[in-house]
Amino acid sequence: MSEKNGKKNSILPVIVVILLIIAILMIVLSLGFGGGLGSGNGNGDGNTSIVSENSSSDNTEENTQVSETTETSETVIEEATEAVTYLDITVSGNTYVVDGSETTIDDITETAGDDNIVVRITDDNAVADAMESLISALDEKNISYIEPTE
Questions:
Q1: Are the CB atoms for 133 and 94 separated by under 8 Å?
Q2: Could you tell me if 55 and 62 are in contact, meaning their C-beta atoms sit under 8 angstroms apart?
Q3: DSSP tag of 61
Q4: For 32-87, how does the pLDDT look when each residue is reduced to its tens digit (9 = 90+)?
């Protein structure tokens, strides 16, 4: 009998030690000291850039960019807002089409020559020379454009 009581008494401290180890591990993991279960330490580089675009039905978009830079405990916030108007051009074969009407490269560069106008080019089975001529003319006049994606 005394042998059985001795085994019961020696198992109890082992169980208590195992429960304490489990409790300590749970506390350490919940405080973010490892294991990926914590909330992190909050260290970042302090640089943020946010760009948002709001569009309306007349091909005008307003771009707002806010950037924060941390320099020796000083935060600089810059905000720039400018309206951008898009001129949609479809190149079909050797023809340039704006709002359903054929036009010329000279008319396109004259219209798009204003500030804050970006030409959006759509390729509708365009001839390579027609596309290259349009892009070359836009580059020559320093007009911003968006090339069609392939």
A1: no
A2: no
A3: E
A4: 655 555 555 555 555 544 443 444 445 555 555 544 444 444 555 555 566 788 89
CB 126 within 8 A of CB 105: no
Residues 67 and 49: beta-carbon distance below 8 Å: yes
- Residues 130/148, Cβ–Cβ less than 8 Å: no
Instruction: At 38, give phi and psi (nearest 5°).
Output: -85, 180
State yes or no: pLDDT of 13 exceeds 70: yes
Q: Which residue has the tokens 């307003």?
A: 62
Looking at the chain, how many residues does it have? 150
pTM over cut 0.70: no
Q: Which amino acid is at 104?
A: T
Inter-axis angle of helices 128-140 and 105-112, nearest 10: 40
Give the distance between the most distant pair of CA atoms in the chain: 109
Question: Which tokens go with 54?
Answer: 């709001």
Yes or no: say if 26 and 38 are a contact pair by the CB < 8 Å rule.
no
How far apart CA 100 and CA 120 sit, in angstroms, is: 15
Res 123: pLDDT: 92
